[in-house]
Amino acid sequence: MSYALEIENLCYAYPDGTPALHGVTLKVKKKKKTAVLGTNGSGKTTLLYHLNGTIPIQEGLVRVMECPVCKENISRIRRMVGLLFDNPDNQLFSTTVFGDIAFGPRNMGLVEEEIETRVDEVIRRVGIEDLAERPPYSLSLGQKKRAAIAGLLAMRPQIMACDEPFSGLDPAVAAQFRTILDQLKEQGRTLIYSTHDVDLAYGWADEVVVMKEGQILKSGAVDMLRDESLMKEASLQLPVLAELFKNSAYKPRTAAEASRILSGLGFKAASDGAGL
């Protein structure tokens, strides 16, 4: 099997010498949603920033679609891997949203007609047509995140690496943002995202990577998040639904699945919306 991402013995220390990653080895499957889960300081963000060369590799190897991440390949790598920062203010710098979205395609050397076509396409996709001429600093956090992802989409990367993509968003905006990312996955993109939200990882990911103190404790199927010893070692709580159903034969991963199970068992509250 070929993988979207292959990481071998990746090590990294901050300029002050503080270690951040210790021999990380990982393979990420194509066309999947992979959650990198861990507490603050576990190395999630540092790992993601290595995927497109934002942080240069000190020791180890990262391959993107079998292409090594290195200085000589950095232009190609950044076309393949779109990195969405936790704080969109680190990503938006132009005087208008249109200019921000156009920056990547223009830097790729595309002709102006193709640039305008791409920008128009992505602003419609993420629903920010009315924001094109607005300055990014005037936008809400949710609008800034949409503008930032539109800028990445305009470059048409095969892999989207998202650092805490839903942090700071209210539930309605977060749900809309998840829909956008789900559509990308359905179109064949590979998504890898960092989070400390165990319920999000449990209900939304296809694969999970659990990290602690710069190391991978375990990676694989989402079911491993029901492992109480693993979660304790990672200083994480069990997902709420895993906790609620741990002594039953049922393994729902979303509130909708849990509601259907309870409804089938005769719990009227679940079916009329008053339960989970």
Jot down its keywords:
276 residues; alpha/beta; Rossmann fold; 2 domains; 6-stranded mixed sheet; 4-stranded antiparallel sheet; 11 helices; 10 strands; disordered C terminus
What does this structure look like?
The chain is built from eleven helices and ten strands. The chain is an alpha/beta fold and about 280 residues long. It folds into two domains: about 5-240, 3-Layer(aba) Sandwich (Rossmann fold); about 245-275, no CATH class. The chain has a six-stranded mixed sheet with strand order 6-7-8-3-9-10. The chain has a four-stranded antiparallel sheet with strand order 2-1-4-5, with no helix packed on it. Strand 4 (about 60-65) and strand 5 form a beta hairpin. The protein is globular.
Radius of gyration: 20 Å
Low-confidence stretches: 269-276
CATH class of the largest domain: Alpha Beta
Give the amount of beta strand, in percent.
Answer: 15-25%
Based on the structure given, which CATH architecture of the largest domain is correct? 3-Layer(aba) Sandwich
How many distinct helices?
11
Q: What is the 3D shape?
A: globular
CATH topology of the largest domain: Rossmann fold
Number of individual domains: 2
Tell me the span between the first and last alpha carbons: 39 Å
Strand order of the largest sheet: 6-7-8-3-9-10
Please identify the structural class as seen in this structure. alpha/beta
